[in-house]
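May I ask for an example protein's residues together with how it folds?

___
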Amino acid sequence: MKKIFTTLLAASMMLAGTSVFAQNLALEAGFGLSSTRFNYTVGSTTADLYGGTIGLSYEIPLMPGTLGFAPGIQVGYFTGGDVKLPFNLGQASFNESYLAVPLDFNLHLPISEDIKFLVVAGPTLDFGLTSRAKVKDTNVEYDIYDGALGDMTKYTRYDVLIGGGLGIDVMDAVRFTVRYDYGLVNRNGGNLTSGFLKVNRSQLKLGVGFLF
């Protein structure tokens, strides 16, 4: 997974570099929901966290005015309280941060001279920066990447999300978007639970951006 992640990232940066003067730069911020679902053989639970992202993307025209490839980079932070921990560890508050590299294809559909409808689809390479859980009414705090219970509950840092969304560009200056992404990688890195626990993250986000 690390090799795939690194290869796709390098390829996107190289492609971007070849067309640096033919791109549209966008500064974007979003607010949304990040849901991590723990699926056991006997049930499931979900940690819903709220937060936001900020980042840059630049569009390389493939069919000028209609279709473009838009790699980018984003940083996201999500937090939430009273999340039920797996294995009856109690209730906890979570905070997580991510570095993401969207590799989007943008389809532009003009509605009028000043308004364009936008369809976005593509994968996102996701790298977990931090993930911590503090158990309610205690001083116990877990670093999920290091393992909440040794090698029992541990996240992997790498994920690949697939998704898409819709948007509107106004006067080639402001962009409004809504987007959903689903993580394809089982993020459970605990060897002791690999046979009966799957962990997948998804996110729903509303965004606004400024085009340059």
About this structure: Residues 2-18 form the longest helix (17 residues). The chain has one helix and nine strands.
